[in-house]
Write a structure and sequence with these properties.
Elements (H helix, E strand, L loop, with lengths): L1 H7 L1 H25 L5 H25 L11 H9 L4 H42 L8 E5 L2 E5 L6 H5 L17 H28 L4 H22 L5 E5 L5 E6 L1 H26 L17
Antiparallel strand pairs: 1-2, 3-4
Helix pairs in contact: 2-3, 2-5, 3-5, 3-7, 7-8, 7-9
Amino acid sequence: MLRWLISMNRVMLLGLTVGATFAVFLIQLMTLEVSSGGDVISYLRDCSGFGEFMIPIFMAVLVSSLFSNYTSIGTKQQRGTFLMIPATNMEKFLALIVHVTVVCGLCAIVGYIVGDSLRMASLWIWSQISADPEFSTCIVVNNNGADKTYYFWSSTVSWLLGPMTPPLNTVCGNGIFSAWFLWARWICISLGSIWTCSFFTLGGTLLRKYSFAITGVFWLAIVLLFMGTLAHFNLSVFGKVTLADGTIVTATVDTLAYVLMVVLPLLSYLNYRASFHIFKGFQLITNKWTNYDILKR
């Protein structure tokens, strides 16, 4: 099933990768014009920050449009062909989930890497032929005990993928952050991302029109309600500590973090379970707005 989906959508996947490549390349070059004061680190952070902001939105749009033309099952004829494939509902559903979340996600990341590489090559060539003193600017940063030099043409891929990777080599700067705090923060962020993906999957499975907009409004309302509840009852996921120099940093794991580690996987499972239940009831002719007719079930 997954191979069939990739084969049917190979042109879309190629276009997605190429589009992401040129979008990243052009926006990173535009960022150079507005980066603060020609600071190398600020520029690299701005470039990676664009990826950290756009890739989740891009994935939310894809996931919430799970059953649309871009997966080759959007029209009535395509849906009929898809439903007639000799495979179980579970196989079809899992193939769709993997195709949208993993395959399309990899295409987006590959597009970012290639676009970032084009930007690196362009800036390096320009620095060689223009002799612009701005591009000879570098900064040396102590990175886990080793000095590292950054230029305007340095890669931002590690800045982008760093928060996504588990803290296997945890070096606790100045003894402020414990290894468990770093792991707990990464676990909560990862589980929150999985829950968000499952929530947009449920919205994309249920709704036929404006799925991203409607699901996004409900997701934002839930997040704001959660943050408002924390503020009202003075709760926190991670606690703050005051250092000897008076600096306040977030460096402790509170009880709510452990609650989220249990609740978020359960909510994600329920979202995927509900999405699969709706998927099993798919018909060629459905409601104008939804794929699930509540009045008939």
